[in-house]
Description:
Blueprint: E1 2-8, E2 11-16, E3 27-35, H1 38-46, E4 60-68, E5 80-83, E6 86-87, H2 93-96, E7 107-108, E8 120-123, H3 125-129, E9 133-135, H4 142-145, H5 148-160, E10 168-172, H6 176-187, E11 192-197, H7 200-205, E12 213-216, H8 222-229, E13 235-240, H9 245-251, E14 255-263, H10 278-283, E15 287-290, H11 296-307, E16 317-322, H12 326-335, E17 340-344
Parallel strand pairs: 10-11, 10-13, 11-12, 13-14, 14-15, 16-17
Antiparallel strand pairs: 1-2, 3-4, 3-8, 3-17, 4-5, 5-9, 6-7
The site of one zinc ion has 6 residues, from helix 5.
Amino acid sequence: MKAAVLEEVDRIRLKEVGTPRCTEDTVLVRVDACAVCGTDVKALRHGHAMMQLPVIPGHELAGTIVEVGSEVHGYYDSERVTVAPAVPCGACFYCRRGHSTVCENLLDIGSRWDGGFAEYMLVPEAALRSGAVNKLPDGLSSEAAALTEPLACCLNAQEQLWVGPGDTVLVIGCGPMGCLNGMLARTLGAAGVYMTDVSADRLRLAEVVGADGYFLNEDSRLEADIKGATDDRGADVVIVACGSAAAQEQAVGLVAPRGRLNYFGGLPRGSGAIAFDSNRIHYQELTLVGNHGSTPLQNHKALALIASGQVDAQKIVTHTFDLERIEDALCTAESQEGLKVLVRPHD
Ligand SMILES: [Zn+2]
Ligand SMILES: [Zn+2]
C-alpha cells in the first residue's frame, strides 16, 4: 500500500510499504479521510516525544473496516468508523479516576502505532478495548467524521470550563482549533461568542464560526473591544487556542470576575514560563485550566454532535489533497493560509 512515512525530522516520504496484516485481535481499516493536525506539523519540524521513527503519522481519521480479526466481536466488514487516537491503559491511577487524558501509559495512533496517512491502518487491540472506535451513521461523510477527534479535544476543554447557557466566550487564535472551539461554545449554549486573532486574514476565515464579534488583536485594543461587548465585564470564558506566550499573558486581563480561562494551545518545550498578575486570579476569583487531548467518551460525544448537525465541523475544511501530495498538505497546514487540511488516501 501507499503510505506517508515520517523517517526523521523534516523528512516525510510517500512510500510503498506492506499492507498491515490483520491479526486475531485487530481490525484493518481502509482510510477514507485523515485530517492534518498541528501536532503532525510539529512532529515533522521538531519531532515528538511520543514518536518512535519511522512512523506513519495521521490521527484524525475516518475509514471503512475491510477485515476483522477472529477474536474481535462487535465490529463487521464494511462498517464505517472513526478512531480516537489516544488510547488510555484503563488501569492506572488517573484512568481509574476517569481522567484518561493524563493516563500514565497513554499510547497514540499516529505516533506509537502507525496512523492514517496511508491507504490502510490497523486498529490495535488496545484501541478496540478502550472504546476508541466509533461507528458512523449512514449519510455522514468521512470528511466530517475525520474531525471527530479535534472536536473531542475542544469538548475536553469546554467540559472542564463548564461552558453553558448565558456565557460569553472569547477565543484567542482563529486556526482550525479556535474555530471548532467557537462553534462548540455556540452549540453548548453560549450567549456570545467572540473571535480574535493577530491576523486579519485568519479572522476572515473564522467567519465560518458565525460568531457575534470579530476583533483584530493589535495595539492593545482587545481589552476595550471585549469589554465593549460584555457590559464592561470581560468574557466569562477565554480560550487561548494558539501557542503564544503573549496571548496567554494577555488573556488573564480579558476574563470577567469569576470567569474561567483555558490554555488550550501548548507552548514550545522549555518556553512555558510566562508572567501575569496573579492578583487577577486571586481577587477576581478566576479559574485557570489547561487541556490537551480527549477521552474515548468525548470522542463518542463529539461524533454525535457532528452527526446530528449540531456542530457543522466540515465548514472548517478549506483544502483536500491526495495522499501523493502529503508534503503539500502539511506545508499548507503550516502556512496557515487556510483552516483544516484533509488528506484522502483513495481517489
Ligand atoms: Zn490532532
Ligand atoms: Zn491509564
